[in-house]
Every structure is written in C-alpha cells, then in structure tokens.
C-alpha cells in the first residue's frame, strides 16, 4: 500500500532539527542500586479480581461494546422497516404482515456485519451473532412459507437483497485496508451511482431516449457511445460530489462529529442502501431517493441512541489513557490483538501509541489519509518539542459522539521517537507492551523496557508474552534495566517491585479479556 510505504519512509528519515531531544534518566545518580530489592515477575493471566477504584472501567471493558451494539440494533431495525416499506410501495405489493417481516429481516442483514465490526472480539462471538440472526430469520420466515413462497425462494430473495453488497463490504473491510476502505468505497459508490442514475434517467421513456440519441448524433457519437458518455458524465458529476463529501468527512472527523468506527458503519449501511436504491431506480428515480431516506432513518435513530448513551456514560475527565507499545515485526498478529483490544478498551479510555509499520494502515484517520492523498502527510510527523506539545494537545481524552474514545497515533522520525516515548510514558495511566516475538534483535524494545522501568510506576505496566518471546533474554533485559534505574525514579524505593505479565494463549481476541482485567487494575494505580 502506497500509504504504508510513505509512512515507513518518513519514519526512517531524521528530522534534522533536533539534538538529544529525550530527557534521559540520570543513570549517574543510581545510588543504592546494589541494595535494591530484586525485581519480581508476576503472571496475572488468570486473575479475575476487580479493583473497586476501576469497577466502572472493568464494567465497560466487559459490557461497553454490547451496550454500544444495542444502539445499532435499534437503528438497524428502524432502517429495515423503512427500507421494506419503500420496497413494498415501489413494487406495488400489498401489506402482508408475515411477508413484510421476512423482507424486513432480509434488510436487517447488515446488523450482522455491524456486530462483527463493533462487538465481536473472538470467532465465537461472530458465530453467536450469526446464529442469533439465522434464528430470528427462521422464526419469521417459517410462518410465511406456503404456496409459491418456499425455503428455496426465501434463500434466493435473501441473496438478491444481500449477496452483492455483502461481497462489496467484505472486499473493502479487509483488516489491512479497513481504516480507509469505507472512504474509498464511498467515492467509488458515488461514481457508480452517478453512472447508473444517469443511465436510468436517460432511458425512462421513449422521448428521453430519442432526445439523448439526437444529442449524440450532433456530437458525432453512435448509439452505444452516446449512452456510454451519459454514464461517464454521471460518474464524473457524482464522483466530484463524492470527493467533496470525503473532504467534509475529514473536517467533521477532526471536529468530532464522526468517529472512525461510525464512518465505517455508516459506509456499510450506505452500501446496502445504494445497492437497493439502484435496484428500485428501475421503478423510477424517486425510489432511489426513498432507499437513501431509509439510510437517513438509520442515521437519525443511531444519533438519538448515542445521545442517550452519552448521557449515561459520563466522566471523560477520569478516563484512563493507555499507552500501547509493541514489537513492530509482529505484523498481522499485532493487528489482531489491537483490533480486539480496541473494541474493548475504547469504551473505557483512549489509546496512545507511536505509529509503526505494523499498524499504520490499520489506525489511519480520515484526515491523515486525505493528507496523504494531498501530499501533505509529512506535516503529521513530530519534528521537535513544539510539534510534540501540539500533538499532545490534540490528543484530548474526550469521547466521540458514539461513546468511544480515540486512538491517538504519534508519527515520529528516527531521531524523535525516544522523546515522544518519554512524554507518553509520563502522561499515561497504564502501559501495555506486547512482547510476543521479542528477542535480541529488537533493540528499540529493549530501550522501551528500560524506559518504562525508570519512568512509569511498575504497577501501571502490563507485558504480554507468549511462546515466541525469548524469555531468557526478557529476564536479562528486565534485570539490566532494573539495575540501571536511577535513585530519582518513581520506582527506586518500591518495597515490593514486580512487573505483571499476561501470557497469551491464543491469537488476538482470545487474550483480550485477560489483558483487559490486567489493564483495569493497572489504570487504578494512584501515585504521589
């Protein structure tokens, strides 16, 4: 991906404006290191106790995503009823309760995709969500069976409504391009819709067809060329509109009108609405507008639901800030863990991290992508202390309108990331460091471990390890880092120094619950 390559090049570049930006710990003042208590390592994978100070955080980590999904369920049901009503009227179908219910459940299929994207952390979650939908579909469809409406016809009708938009959504929501997929898809949809609508309008009646043909002849075009030109004009016109919409989305995102997830979910429902609208447009252009109206019903109900949810969830000022560090070479394994952790943690607090090649494409924000397209990505990188302070000020701990906190990426050059690390470590309520795959070649991670021992209260730190972690080298790294902790460190006089680890036993989502419990406890630590 071009965006990822651009990020990698900028990361390896030196800013050329700074020298020794990091405030290094005073290792020369390491008085008493020889008599300091040895550092212990405690595996908290199976701990289930909840800290009273963070009981609310623990609750949000367990149930916040399902509470969030409930809003989308209500909005999705409203969309399904509205779209089904448009479908029945456009096709001249009389109201029949059972048939209406069946078609409404067909139109509610995007709820399954929405649940996968917002609430599902494990494969089992996805299986349960899909099974619930199928159970509802079977319960509604069975009473309507009879005559010409058979199980086979129900399956065919479901596929007519859903198979094409589902494949489109899955194509653009692959994890590696998910962050920008909806924006690209929105632009493509505008262009395709413009082409389809222009073609339908031009061919609504014989008089319109003759007029278009005569215009084409004047321009020296044949019949097929004329209608191809009409389609291109429609695509260009709505393509321009699509680009303006993307620019508006970037501005709205910066203003916190939308969140990254709400843009993604909106794209899913808009894709389904546009596909249904293009089918209904053959009955008249106004029915395309009717399909879009169903989408805006979804948006209105969701906005109302999140407003109510926002009134229930208060206390932005107390939201814990999580610093996420990791071995960059983990690749897709890092993506999977981040994906699951993000769905759980962001209902309780924000995530901060130094941007790296492993997650750059996964966490790209709308305005960052537009900066890349416009050739202005370099301005996102931190080159000096002033730039760091501006970026910290931008990373406010406020909820978006959908009730979730944001991921704040800090783009760093090769000579500024240590300065940024020091600032983030001092300004976070909990630190999670993913050390799966950690070994002697990960010199940057060795530096980060030493910095955490020197700068962050030990009880705020959680390390993730698994069978790919070089445990002997990790023990050596911790011992060396602990021996180098200066006397001025927050950990210098800790009576019982311990580092907490979570042992990952699965890939990604299966470990999120254990990590969440450990982070809830870590974020409850109060220091003087």
- How are the strands of the biggest sheet laid out side by side? 1-8-7-6-2-3-5-4
Question: Pairing-aware structural class of the strands and helices?
Answer: alpha/beta
Average pLDDT metric: 80
Tally the structural domains. 2
Distance between the termini: 46 Å
- The shape is elongated
Number of strands: 8
Strand content: 5-15%
* Major sheet size, sense and barrel closure: 8 strands, parallel
Secondary-structure element order, N to C = HEHHHHHHHHHHEHEHEHEHEHEHEH
The low-confidence parts are 18-29
> Helicity level, as a percent range?
55-70%
Supply Rg.
Answer: 27 Å
So how many helices? 18
Structural summary, described in words:
With 528 residues, this protein is of the alpha/beta class. It folds into two domains: 2-12 and 38-61 and 316-522, no CATH class; 66-311, no CATH class. Helices cover 57% and strands 7% of the residues. It contains 18 helices and eight strands. It has an eight-stranded parallel beta sheet, with helices on both faces.
